[in-house]
Design goal:
With about 450 residues, this protein is an alpha/beta fold. Helix 2 crosses helix 3, helix 5 crosses helix 6 and helix 10 runs antiparallel to helix 16. It has 16 helices and ten strands. Helix 9 links the parallel strand 9 and strand 10.
């Protein structure tokens, strides 16, 4: 392995025809290099394809004068549409268009792909699943995704219970080759692909049982993982791509279950944090950081977990806001029989029961517990159902009702105390849409502050 005493191709300027001043990936690399040297500054990645979440993240990036870093997962967005019914091209065009309309310039939009690989098709044989994973990687690169998380860590149908590092790294190298080949089809001015690798990768969407805190990746495992990946990249003649590996996914000991959050313990991660200096140009990428406290997120950045991924917490906040608006609607209209009130929660639960594939393996209690977890779980499995047409219809009805019946400040104080203060101070408009966005931004500001220099 290359150690810090050797020349550092990662920490030098990328010697490529594609390096541009308007390259958002170059901005990312600048922040990561600074973190390696000082433990100061990091970035957070919004891992969501939800419209309201993306719009809130755009506004946060504008306020912070930062790069909008958005990643879609392989289950959310893929060549077959994913559960959002969007291909990478559709998603890329939508995010960039929304950013442009809001006044965020294109050089401050960084798109990434999370868990790109065979994961959505892991129920198939490995060869079939890996081929589809390669097709997904290719589609993402051709759609302008620049930060690519190569994830082949999950066993497929004809694998055993676990994969060894060599197999994971070898499959990731095949995915990387697909990405590099796709990049050659892009215009010459296109920013180069950046890669994230790893073997101890938390499952997308959070832990399924939440019974025990996850074990922190050991320093020895970290060394072995990097060695396996470097060897695999070399065997596939991907030495140039290896220089653009910017982060390693490890397990820092953070996770969440249906009703529990496992907090970051700096002492348990101390040895892992220390050994990052032995490898050139790599920082850690931390998944499942949702619901960590502001102080702990700041500690993670200082300990070189320089890329923080957040997703379910953002749609959790969206759900809080929508159901609070529904409660306000009930108070406003409960005596008005001429107006049909929305039934957002009822429609959401019905959609979940009609298609249990996204929650069945996560919620295992009795009927009363399951009914509660449908809506209030940290795992936030209801996020998969907001795009259901019947749910969308009820949300539209909710917003229409509140648009024609302005909400008194007294009700806002009851259900949205933080937003109420912002409205009273003139910092926030009193429309339902702006209130929902502001509620999501409370979470985004936590990450923004944790990653600040």
């Amino acid at each position: 392995m290359r150690r810090s005493s050797e020349s550092n191709p990662h920490d030098s300027a990328t010697p490529a025809r594609h390096q541009q001043s308007d390259d958002p990936g170059a901005r990312l690399q600048h922040v990561l290099r600074r973190n390696r040297k000082s433990g100061q500054g990091g970035v957070y990645a919004v891992c969501s394809a939800h419209t309201n979440v993306i719009e809130a993240a755009i506004q946060q990036a504008i306020e912070d004068r930062s790069v909008l870093h958005v990643e879609s997962t392989s289950s959310q967005v893929n060549q077959f549409g994913g559960y959002t019914r969007q291909t990478p091209q559709h998603f890329s065009e939508w995010v960039r268009g929304a950013a442009n309309r809001a006044g965020l310039p294109h050089e401050r939009v960084l798109l990434g792909g999370d868990h790109l690989g065979p994961f959505p098709w892991r129920g198939e044989a490995a060869n079939s699943a890996l081929k589809k994973g390669c097709d997904l990687v290719r589609a993402c690169v051709l759609s302008g995704y620049q930060k690519i998380h190569l994830d082949a860590s999950m066993p497929c149908a004809d694998d055993g219970d676990r994969l060894d590092d060599k197999t994971i790294a070898g499959r990731a190298a095949i995915l990387c080759q697909a990405a590099e080949n796709a990049y050659l089809e892009l215009p010459p001015s296109s920013p180069q692909n950046l890669y994230v690798i790893g073997t101890e990768v938390p499952a997308p969407g959070g832990e399924s049982d939440g019974a025990h805190a996850p074990e922190v990746t050991t320093a020895d495992n970290m060394h072995r993982t990097l060695e396996a990946f470097q060897n695999a990249f070399s065997q596939h003649s991907l030495d140039s791509a290896w220089k653009r590996v910017v982060a390693l996914v490890v397990q820092p000991g953070v996770e969440f279950g249906s009703d529990v959050v496992f907090d970051y313990d700096r002492a348990k991660a101390r040895s892992l944090s220390a050994v990052i200096s032995e490898h050139t140009g790599i920082v850690y990428e931390a998944h499942s950081t949702d619901y960590q406290s502001p102080q702990l997120l700041k500690q993670m950045v200082e300990d070189h977990f320089a890329i923080l991924k957040v997703g379910p917490w953002l749609t959790f906040a969206y759900r809080e806001a929508v159901l609070a608006l529904a409660a306000i609607e009930h108070e406003l209209l409960k005596t008005n029989s001429s107006i049909r009130r929305s039934q957002v929660r009822e429609a959401l639960e019905k959609a979940m029961r009609s298609n249990p594939v996204y929650w069945r393996s996560y919620y295992r209690g009795d009927e009363l517990q399951t009914q509660r977890e449908f809506i209030y779980s940290y795992s936030d499995r209801c996020r998969y159902y907001w795009n259901d047409p019947s749910v969308q219809e009820e949300i539209a009805r909710l917003l229409d009702n509140l648009a024609t019946h302005p909400v008194p400040l007294t009700l806002l104080s009851q259900f949205f105390p933080l937003e109420y203060e912002a409205i009273r101070q003139g910092r926030l408009g009193p429309t339902p849409e702006m209130i929902v966005r502001e509620h999501i931004r409370h979470v985004l500001r936590i990450y923004s502050l944790a990653c600040a220099s």
